[in-house]
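Render this sequence as a predicted structure.
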Amino acid sequence: MRVLVTGGAGYIGSHVVKLLGEQGHTVMTYDNLSTGNAWAVLAGELVVGDLADTTLLQATLRDFAPDAVMHFAASIVVPESVSDPLKYYTNNTANTLKLIQAVVAGRVPHFIFSSTAAVYGMPQQLPVSESAPLLPINPYGTSKMMSELILRDCAAAHPGFRYVALRYFNVAGADLSCRIGQAYAMPTHLITRGLKTAQGVFPELLIFGTDYDTPDGTCIRDYIHVDDLASAHICALEHLAGGGASDIFNCGYGRGFSVREVVRVMREVVGYDFPVRETGRRAGDPAALIADSRKLQQSLGWKPRYDDLHTMIRSAWAWEQHYARRHQRP
């Protein structure tokens, strides 16, 4: 298939582009490189452009004529969404609307959307299923929920347009061959931040909140290896290509780890106790998020391969060491 990938130079998008290329699909990445990197695009062509540039976006869709669009381009930092909500509604909702408008006008039949578990807010029941109420507690989650609603309504109004929304839980790890991984200048992901602290990039790792209603007082999250998440996108693409209906799926492993547990495993992997400091809660963080991903496995045939916290952290650590050498960082 011919697949246009927005945000394909970023962390998750680049792993999906890599897998699409390996499986023989024709790929084009559309990315403004605000957080992505051109070197991370391992397959197909890269168009440097912004979703707000509707002229370039429409021309790219017309010239490439994709069978499907996968949409990853988004702002993703929860605390920033609380302090700067307009940035998130502009980039995550308004720009997604422009993309969907262009896709529908261009008669592209299939759309795969990078959504988030943040749409659930603080779920009353764990693990959380796709039928749980959508009650986001931060602008990031709300901006993604609004995009999901736009997709739902567009699919109802345009019979030739079908979509899959994948609600990610916490994504971790890196390409096992160390070709790509997280490469943000100021990462906020716990594992990346912790491993960079172990390298001396940051003086300490902060644990935000130790008084949550969890066994050890720190937040619990369901972590999924980025390559397993990439394979979920291939399953979604095959579902739509085979005539499957529009649908929504959770992407996680169905079990959670607390922040303190993750720190313990990171210290085991790197081999020493890097500095950690506990501080107050961060705005917009639910106590626990764990996925019920049975629907993804049963309906789309998705089979996780790297469902192990040590594997995720070891692959991320190998990447961080490779990335440091690549950029000659002490």
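Summary. Residues 85-105 form the longest helix (21 residues). Residues 190-221+254-326 form a domain with the UDP-galactose 4-epimerase; domain 1 fold (CATH 3.90.25.10).
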